[in-house]
Amino acid sequence: HGAEYSVARFEVPSGAEMNWIDVGNTGSWSEDNDGAQSMVLTLDDEPGDQHLVTDRWGGKYHFIPNTTTRNFLQYLVDWLEDENGNRITLFYNANGYPLVASDGFGREIHYVWTPVSFNGTRHLARVVLPGGQWIQLQHFFDSPQAYTLTYPNGDVASYGFGTDADGDFYYFDDPLGQPGARKQRVYTYGT
Fold first, then answer.
1. Alpha-carbon gap, residue 166 to 67, rounded angstroms
2. How far is the C-alpha of 98 from the C-alpha of 101, rounded, in Å?
3. Among candidates 18, 22, 19, which has minimal Cα distance to 6?
4. What is the pLDDT of residues 73-120, one digit of tens each?
5. How would you classify residue 144: left for phi > 0, otherwise alpha for psi between -120 and 50, otherwise beta?
6. Is 131 helix (H, G, I), strand (E, B) or coil?
7. How far apart are CA 182 and CA 2, in angstroms?
C-alpha cells in the first residue's frame, strides 16, 4: 500500500482473523481495528521478508514468501510451534500444496493431492500417517454428498449438504470405532 503504510491479515479456516497496520513501513506492526479483532496475535518482521505471528499463549506461526505457482498466496507457513516448544515443519511442492509435516521426533505425515484441479484448486486425497497407515478422502463435486473419509481400519464417514422443510443443512455420518456403531449429526444453517 505505497510507502505510507502496510497492512497484514491472518485468517484461519473458521473465519477468525487478525489485522495489523504498519504506519510508515517501519516494521512496527500494531493492531488494526483495535478491540474489534476475533483473535489476539502479534506480528513481527524477520529478515528475508519472513514474518512471525505469536498468539497470547506463546504459540508461533512462521511465514516465508511464497515462491510456488499458487501466486494468490503471498506467504506460506513453514513451521508452527506450540507454547511448549513442540515444532511442526511443513514442506510444499512447486504448486504450493503441503507435502510433508514433520515433528521434532522424526515423525512425518505425508499429504497426497488430487492430480487434477476442480474450481481452480486441488483437493486432499490421502493422508499417510507415521507407520504407513493412511486416511483416504473421496470428493463428490456433482452430488449433495461432499466427500467420504476412509479411516485406516476401513470405517467410512460421509459428509454432505442437503435441504429439507427447515432449510439447508450440513450432515456427517461418522463411525464410532465399534462395528456398526454410528454417530450422526445434522447442522442447519440460514436459508
1. 46
2. 8
3. 22
4. 889 999 999 999 999 999 999 989 999 999 989 999 999 998 887 777
5. alpha
6. coil
7. 56
